[in-house]
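Technical note accompanying the year-one report. For the benefit of new consortium partners, we illustrate the data format agreed upon in the data management plan: each record pairs a sequence with a structure-token string. No post-processing was applied to the example shown here.
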Amino acid sequence: MYVQQFFVKGLAHSSYLLGGSESCAIIDPRRDVQLYIDAAEDMNMTITHILETHLHADFVSGHRDLAERTGAKIYAPGKCEYPYTQSAEGVMFKLDDLEIRVVETPGHTPEHVSYIVIDKARGIEPVALFCGDTLFVGDVGRPDLFPGKAQELAGKLYDSLYMKLLTLPEFCEVYPAHGAGSLCGRAMGAKRSSTIGYEKLYNSALQIKDKKAFIESLTTNMPGSPDHFKRCSATNGVGPALVKTLPVMRTISPQEFILICEKGDSVVLDTRAYDAFGGQHVPGAYHIDINGNFVTFAGWIIPPDKDILLVTDNLAQACDASVWLRRVGLDRVVGYLEGGMFGWAKAGLPAGHVGQLSAHDLRNRMLHGPTLTLVDVRAPKEYEGHHIEGAINIPAPDLRTRGHELNANEPVAVICSTGHRSSLGASILKMQGFKEVYNVAGGMTGFSAAGYAPACPMCLNPHGPGFLGK
């Protein structure tokens, strides 16, 4: 048996190549599938199976693209609208010397399954578990993604864990679909695989043995659910469009770019560093720094029914951004700005600006004025861990609907952990007509490093369970 893991940092998503002697299966594939084809070729294996544990909510799967390119058969649970074999309780198939058994493990989603692997070349005991989002390192899947069904799904998750997965041998290896940084759980560890025995001992969620207490724990104080979760889940059931059928990104001159913007059926997404965005940007642009948690926040806030126009530092960054956007089902990237903002400025076109405040600048404004409103756009748990006195907590995505709670005619400074999410928040406020908006460069990390506040626990642990990006 051979296992190779592929980890997507921004999504904290793990997919796998499970190989026998000549054949292999790809489990929970991402949408850009060439790396699986290359890996199989390197191992002189043929991809014969594509295994989905559930209809993923946080990313669009590559199962259709991989099947189209390799001829492999898709195994998936639930009701799907493309050729596939139903993964259901009791289904068993062979992969050379490997025996793969399907067990239904609902809880994170209603249709969830897990795959138990027995390596017949070595023994008869289960040796590996591909459990999707049912069991994580240090945590379990969240059951609250379906309105009105959280209690029911939390109960099913308990049964899936205690009646099925935790009955496997303690040496059985655990390969989950996500790690720390994903919003498919609440407190995942940074380690990317484990064993049943280790999770029994040290997984915090599994220390709650009482079913009622387990359900209560998993249905209260859960992190926010991004907008794209429901959309991606539906897309994975219907079947994503093949990547080869999507629009080809083209270069757009500044003069054509502004004409497209004026039609109102597109959005501008600026992926440059936040200081560059602050210096000048296309008026009305969203800003999501590609070096921050780009993919999660893009899926969360970019409208899926609009064409997307990119502003980047160069073509390579535009291509990278397009790949990331496709991973969360944002398929309408039509072009990028020729020459970037330098070309825009040379064309004599108007630009927007966001002032950048250092930690010292912010401290001076707080002590000596002129007064400003400080908006902390981190997640509630980060804010509760430590915040600047007087700061108003509105998570960055929520500014789309809660911006009216602030006075658009007064100066506003936006802060997060380092300056990335706060720049996104600043761009949203600028769209809403706020006159004077500042981004706090360095965020709470810089403010603490300057000696003005205690260190933020979550800012110091970028791989921790509550961290939502830089």
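Partners are asked to follow this layout when depositing records. The mean pLDDT is 95.
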